[in-house]
Every structure is written in C-alpha cells, then in structure tokens.
Amino acid sequence: MKNFLLLNVLILVVLLGACSDNKTDQQQSGRESRDNNIEQNSYGGFEHVGKAENLGTYKSGPISVTIKAANLNTGTLTDDFYIDLLGKEKVDYMNIAIDISTESEKIQFNPGHLKVVTDAGETIESPHDYLSDKVEMQYLKSYNTQRILVYVFEDTKAESVESVNFIVEAPKNENGESLGEYIEVPINFSKGGE
C-alpha cells in the first residue's frame, strides 16, 4: 500500500512538473532534481517529451469527463519494486489527468471503458491497474473527482508519438445496455519548445 501511494505521488509530480510552471508544484515530494524536462527522483529518471492541455469536457449518458492534461514520458526505473511490476527498466508511458463525474451511481463503468490508441496503432485497452487512480463506480461521486490514468506503452516509444485517440466507451445500465455515446477524443502533443 505504501508503494502504491508513493507511486501516485510520483505520477502527480510528473504530471504537475510537465504541465505547470508554478514554483509550489516544483517542490512536491519525491523530487530530487529537475532540469528542464528531466525529472530525477528515487524511482528513476524520467523525461517529459510531449504535452497537451485543456482538452475539453465530454459527456456520455450520465458520465462527464473533462480532460485536463496529457503527458508523454520516457525514462529508466531504478526501484526494484517497479522494475518487477512492469517487467522492465526502460519505460515509455502517457499519463492523463481527468475530472470525472456521474449523475447516477447505478451504472457499470470501469477502467476497461477508457482506452488509448496511438498514432502508431498500439491499442492500450485500459489504464495500468497499479499505476492509475481507480475509476470504478465505488470510487466516484456525483461531483468532479480528479483521476490520473497511466498508459504504459509496450511497442511504442513516447518520443515517436505525435497523437493518440482517447476513447471513452459509454457506461451501461444494470442490464448491460448502453446509456450514452462512444466518445473518441484526438489528443495532439506539443513537443519540446513547441
């Protein structure tokens, strides 16, 4: 549990570091040094290679999703726990910060409703179970709840990604019937100083 909480702090630090110039954000715990887009901390070294912000609000039935920011990252893990968890030292991933709310808690909605397809054709069927915030209904309220979702690339290098499609499948009722529309949001990343 301690490692899970520490990793969520790391993800938040990486997200805030890539999306904000606020000095307070740059003093988050877990950070040892920062040089432009490079993050060095107790988990390893990470580079922010692309970002997109303020991507809009989308509604599907009783679910509303506001996409606050998305970041592309690459790096090398040095913590054995996370190396074992991911099965590799070199990692390329995307994290997305969303606000999500629902008008009804009597629906079926889970991580499998949130997919990503890269411009290279790699499909990631759901955010990483251990690295992402939970989105099952018992964790969501009727007001906006911020969640950070992490998608680890298997076949794609973060530096080569120019865009992804973020897909929100419609929630379902208790009988498995769709309650809304399929949402597909193109996310185009700015790279470096762009």
How would you describe what is shown here?
Residues 1-20 form the signal peptide. This is DUF4352 domain-containing protein. The protein is mainly β. The protein is 13% helix and 40% strand. The protein has two helices and eleven strands, in the order H-E-E-E-E-E-H-E-E-E-E-E-E. It is globular and about 45 Å long.
Runs in which pLDDT lies below 50 for 5 or more consecutive residues are 1-10, 12-34
Q: What is the radius of gyration? A: 16 Å
Element pattern in H and E = HEEEEEHEEEEEE
What is the subunit arrangement here?
Answer: single chain
Number of helices: 2
CATH names the topology as: Immunoglobulin-like
Q: Per the principal axes of the C-alpha atoms, what is the gross shape?
A: globular
Largest sheet: 7 strands, antiparallel
CATH top level is Mainly Beta
CATH architecture: Sandwich
CA distance, first residue to last residue:
38 Å
- Proportion of strand residues: 35-45%
The mean pLDDT is 82
Quickly give the structural class: mainly beta
Percent helix, as a range, is 10-25%
Q: What is the number of beta strands? A: 11
**What number of structural domains do the residues give?**
1
SSE blueprint:
Layout: H1 2-19, E1 31-35, E2 38-41, E3 44-53, E4 57-60, E5 63-77, H2 80-86, E6 90-102, E7 114-118, E8 123-124, E9 145-152, E10 163-168, E11 183-188
Antiparallel strand pairs: 1-2, 2-3, 3-5, 4-5, 5-6, 6-9, 7-8, 7-10, 10-11
